[in-house]
Amino acid sequence: MDNRPVLFFDSGVGGLSVLAAARALLPQMPVVYVADSAGFPYGTKSEAEIAARVPALLGRLAERYRPRLIVIACNTASTIALAAVRGALDVPVVGTVPAIKPAALVSKTRVIGVLGTPATVRQPYVDDLAQRFAGDCIVLRHGSAELVELAEAKLHGIATDPARYAAILDDLFGQEGGAQIDTIVNACTHFPLVAEELAAAAPHPITFVDGSAGIARRIAFLTDGQDWPDQPAQGRAVFTGSADANPALAATLAGFGLSEIETL
Ligand code: DGL
Fold it and tell me: pLDDT of 89-141, one tens digit each?
């Protein structure tokens, strides 16, 4: 029987949004979920910092956990370092990139918002996706490190102020043409975790789109024909910084099937 896990990687809890979609499709998948808490947040770091950190760390993690597949469940790390990680490892690597293509398929007004981290929204990778898949749309972007903090706070059981979500969305809707936005790409894996708060703060009904369902299908495709354990194994959450002893977070992680917590 093949017990090798799928390794999910993010700077924090954001990758849980991707893990949830993947688990729904592949319930028997053994999981190691790594939060690079020592490097959090990624979204305010430079390209050079991310490019130096992520491939090296994933190399060490691959040696330690021997995964069958790695999922970089982080748009910031993927848009900057996916090619370098693939080049450095001989494990298949699935990345998470802004879901501009599916957004362009559903937008009626042809005005799309892309909400990511400051580092993600400035990537040429995003220009390229917009050009290739949303050439007839206006694509407006906003990078918010604050929204990452709000999602982390929520999953740590800390109440957040609805006005802060509205102010973040104002920075998108307030741009020229922004009032026409009907579709927003959650281009940071943290943001689907605050989907309800975002929907409640939006000035009119918005379709929020993210890549998690597509990533889940990609994992299923790449592991097609492989064995899985008969019983779903308990998942393991790994933090690169000091162990996060927050009891609300431990309960959240258990809800995502991660009942063992480990610090590297
Ligand atoms: N969850 C990550 C992403 O998808 C980044 C969060 C951070 O800034 O660390 O971009």
Answer: 999 999 999 999 999 999 999 999 999 999 999 999 999 999 999 999 999 99
Is 240 contained in some domain? yes
Are 91 and 106 part of one and the same domain?
A: no
Mark whether 198 and 242 lie in a shared domain.
no
Q: Which atom of ligand 1 is nearest to the CA of 145?
A: 8
Low-confidence ranges of the chain (pLDDT < 70): 243-244
Catalytic annotation present for 74: yes
Calculate the dihedral angle through the C-alpha atoms of 184, 144, 50, 263, rounding to the nearest 10 degrees.
-100
Active-site hit among 111, 138, 188, 258: 188
Are 226 and 203 members of one domain?
no
Task: Give me the phi and psi of 220, to 5 degrees please.
Answer: -60, -40
For 243, counting Cβ atoms within 10 Å of its Cβ (0-12 exposed, 13-18 middle, 19+ buried), the class is middle
Residue 41: closest CA among 88, 75, 70: 75
Please tell me if the CB atom of residue 14 comes closer than 6 angstroms to any atom of ligand 1.
yes
Contacts of 247 (CB under 8 A, 6+ apart): 157
138: left (phi over 0), alpha (psi -120 to 50) or beta: beta
Are 109 and 138 in the same domain?
Answer: yes
pTM of the complete model: 0.97
Residue 207 pLDDT: 98
Residue 62 Cβ contacting ligand 1 at under 6 Å = no
Contact 88, 59 (CB under 8 A): yes
pLDDT of residue 116: 98
111 close to 87: Cβ distance less than 8 angstroms: no
Residues in the chain: 264
Which of 183, 253, 210, 252 is closest to 18 using CA atoms? 210
